[in-house]
């Protein structure tokens, strides 16, 4: 029996729930023995674990895979990392208590904000977004907390806002069921400013009723999340894993709504070829190319 190790995020987080969904289909359709491994630092930790042969696949935000491939900070040396498949384009957002005076991202200046575990990819998103907006880290109090810890601190009134990873995730669901929350908006052209500064972000809308506390459609930033692998991973394992995703797009979305619309992320392969998924100049794994050819996305 083939065994596959999938690196995700902290338990209950976005990547962890997606990894569980993918594992269930690999076990059902391929009889694969899948181990879903959590990771406090998600993207960065998964790239390092691929390098050390501790996992076969790792969920990552697309802005990190090119850095890992090139050996740019925070990576100490190049990783023979390869693209396997996109996972989703997930909206990231700040939450606050529903009765808070905070309304926009800039209102967090001078406030206490939980930004995620130290060294995680989610923290690096704050650096990128705030850097584009000209907000320095000495203009507010950043607190490194897990998403569960941050939610509890927000509920207790110990912090003013929390940075959240894409929904649905079990931690955010639990927070919204315990307390009334509100999303923070971006001022004026701030959303466009960030989108213009970083090509790995996309425009997203958090729809009314998406979770408890969202009472109107709210524009936010989304990052394309991906599943990476290593050059050493066998073509058969990569091909079969990617084909399982391509053959079960509806099932993936039914198990975890984060996969909704994933088919649209594959479509540019038809017109742009492999470059459509080679984020940061990271090559597609040969096994993934085989899968896309079999599924008709590549000629």
Describe the structure.
The chain is built from twelve helices and ten strands. The chain is of the alpha/beta class and 299 residues long. α1 packs across α8. The longest helix has 17 residues. The model has no long low-confidence stretch (mean pLDDT 94).
Overall structural class, as computed from helix and strand content, comes to alpha/beta
Q: Helical proportion? A: 25-40%
Average the pLDDT over all residues and give the rounded result: 94
Assign the CATH architecture of the largest domain. Answer: 3-Layer(aba) Sandwich
Shape: globular
Low-confidence stretches: none
Number of domains: 2
Q: What value does the Rg take, in angstroms?
A: 19 Å
Total count of helical runs of at least 4 residues:
12
Order of helices and strands: EHEHEHEEHEHEHEHEEHHHHH
Quickly list its features.
299 residues; alpha/beta; D-Maltodextrin-Binding Protein, domain 2; ten-stranded mixed sheet; 12 helices; 10 strands; globular
Question: What's the helix and strand layout?
Answer:
Elements: E1 3-7, H1 14-30, E2 33-37, H2 42-51, E3 57-61, H3 62-70, E4 81-97, E5 112-114, H4 121-133, E6 141-143, H5 147-155, E7 161-164, H6 170-178, E8 181-183, H7 190-197, E9 201-206, E10 218-230, H8 235-246, H9 249-255, H10 262-266, H11 268-272, H12 286-294
Parallel strand pairs: 1-2, 1-3, 5-6, 5-7
Antiparallel strand pairs: 3-10, 4-7, 4-8, 4-10, 9-10
Helix pairs in contact: 1-8, 4-7, 5-6, 8-12
Sum this structure up briefly:
The chain is of the alpha/beta class. It is built from 12 helices and 10 strands.
């Amino acid at each position: 029996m083939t065994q596959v190790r999938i690196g995700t995020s902290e338990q209950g987080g976005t990547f962890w729930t997606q990894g569980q969904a993918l594992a269930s289909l690999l076990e059902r359709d391929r009889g694969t023995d899948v181990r879903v491994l959590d990771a406090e630092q998600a993207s960065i930790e998964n790239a390092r674990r691929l390098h050390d042969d501790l996992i076969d696949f790792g969920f990552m935000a697309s802005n990190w895979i090119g850095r890992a491939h090139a050996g740019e900070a925070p990576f100490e040396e190049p990783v023979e990392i390869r693209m396997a498949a996109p996972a989703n384009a997930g909206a990231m957002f700040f939450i606050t208590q529903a009765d808070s005076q905070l309304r926009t991202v800039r209102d967090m200046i001078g406030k206490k904000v939980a930004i995620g575990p130290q060294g995680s990819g989610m923290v690096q998103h704050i650096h990128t977004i705030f850097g584009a907006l000209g907000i320095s880290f000495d203009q507010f109090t950043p607190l490194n907390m897990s998403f569960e810890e941050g939610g509890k601190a927000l509920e207790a009134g110990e912090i003013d806002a929390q940075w959240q990873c894409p929904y649905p995730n079990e931690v955010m669901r639990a927070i919204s069921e315990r307390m009334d929350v509100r999303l923070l908006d971006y001022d004026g052209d701030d959303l466009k400013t960030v989108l213009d500064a970083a090509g790995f972000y996309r425009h997203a809308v958090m729809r009314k009723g998406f979770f408890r506390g969202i009472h109107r459609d709210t524009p936010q930033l989304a990052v394309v999340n991906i599943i990476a692998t290593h050059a050493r991973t066998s073509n058969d394992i990569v091909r079969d894993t990617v084909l399982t995703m391509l053959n079960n797009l509806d099932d993936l979305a039914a198990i975890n709504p984060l996969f909704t619309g994933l088919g649209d992320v594959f479509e540019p392969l038809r017109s742009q070829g492999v470059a459509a998924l080679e984020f940061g100049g990271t090559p597609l794994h040969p096994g993934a190319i085989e899968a896309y050819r079999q599924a008709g996305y590549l000629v």
